[in-house]
Write a structure and sequence with these properties.
Length: 91
């Protein structure tokens, strides 16, 4: 857990100091999107593989499924919005 927090703090510091070239900043936006898509794909695969989750979908409840899908869609849409806003800002 500390590795994750430390990595995030280091990234914030690097971004704040602005030591990365502009070209690398643009690449980081695309890498973030690709990383998120890979994360969602792997999470979906893990859910699909888990027979326990699949067999208990009805007991998990519609509310939990809607909340999960909403969280995923919200994350993706917000990331796309930020990417579009940042790319139009750089033009």
């Amino acid at each position: 857990m500390w590795v994750i927090i430390l990595s995030l703090l280091m990234g914030i510091l690097i971004g704040y100091i602005d030591i990365l070239p502009n070209r690398l900043n643009k690449l980081s936006d695309k890498l973030t999107l690709v990383g998120l898509m890979i994360l969602l794909l792997v999470m979906g695969i893990k859910i699909g593989i888990s027979k326990e989750i699949i067999n208990n979908l009805d007991s998990l409840g519609l509310k939990a499924i809607i909340l999960s899908i909403g969280s995923i869609l919200g994350s993706v849409l917000l990331l796309l919005f930020v990417e579009v806003a940042r790319s139009s800002k750089g033009d």
